[in-house]
Fold this sequence. Notes:
Blueprint: H1 2-33, H2 38-46, E1 57-59, E2 63-65, E3 91-97, H3 103-115, E4 122-126, E5 134-138, E6 143-145, E7 153-158, H4 166-177, E8 192-194, E9 240-242, H5 258-267
Parallel strand pairs: 3-4, 3-5, 5-7
Antiparallel strand pairs: 1-2, 6-7, 8-9
Amino acid sequence: MARSSVFWALALLLLSACCWADNRFEDLAEDAAEGLSVSELLERANSNLIRSADDPILTEGDIAVDTEAERNADPCTSWGCTWGKWTDGKVYIPYYITNHFNSREKAIITRGLESFSSFSCIRFRPSSSSDRDWLSIESQNGCYSYVGRRGGKQVVSLARSGCLYHGTVQHELLHALGFNHEQTRSDRDNHIKVLLQNVHSGMEHNFRKIATLNQGTAYDYNSVMQYHRYAFSKNNQPTMVPIPNASVNFGNAKEMSRSDIARLNTLYKC
């Protein structure tokens, strides 16, 4: 009995040490990423991914599209892609979090989902069997989302390796709600100069302009949807510089800005 007790005590100690080491590794990884902006986290998580035939095409780093043709046009311009409002004035969006995630990771995702209820009429709620359209939050190949409501099951990928941060969750959910990146705004050229000579070959489409609904709001360098100065750079030189003042800081957001919130409320008439 004594030997058995010692064996199980040692086994429990080893298991505890293993779990502590795993958690400590996660803590160190989070600490290392703490100083990065959302756009830097997204680029890091999505860089050097090997895409399979089953993966959606990605444009602008993390926007999923079904066909190559959609690289050149916002899918929302040809049909309504916002989520519907109920009679109580709230916009209820069903979601399902797959079992890819552990409890700690689910808590990060849930916090991101619930944050919208504190500043808008958006209410993410668990999906039911009667829902026709819903977000399926999964750990797939990188961080990505489609823009706006697509109909049926709609994947939002938050890969366990690199995507599980509050700001990145908000960023991908804003895509699902119908928002594009700030640097693709129709009035982008009045605020950002794109230096295509510094962009990786084949990545130029990531800087396309689209007919965005700017809703009377000013260009927001602090938007969680604004990419950083060196996004998609091939030579460590800037791919974007602000104009007329090139020294303006931008692309440093770690969560939604006041302007992001104002646009969301305007779009959904909250």
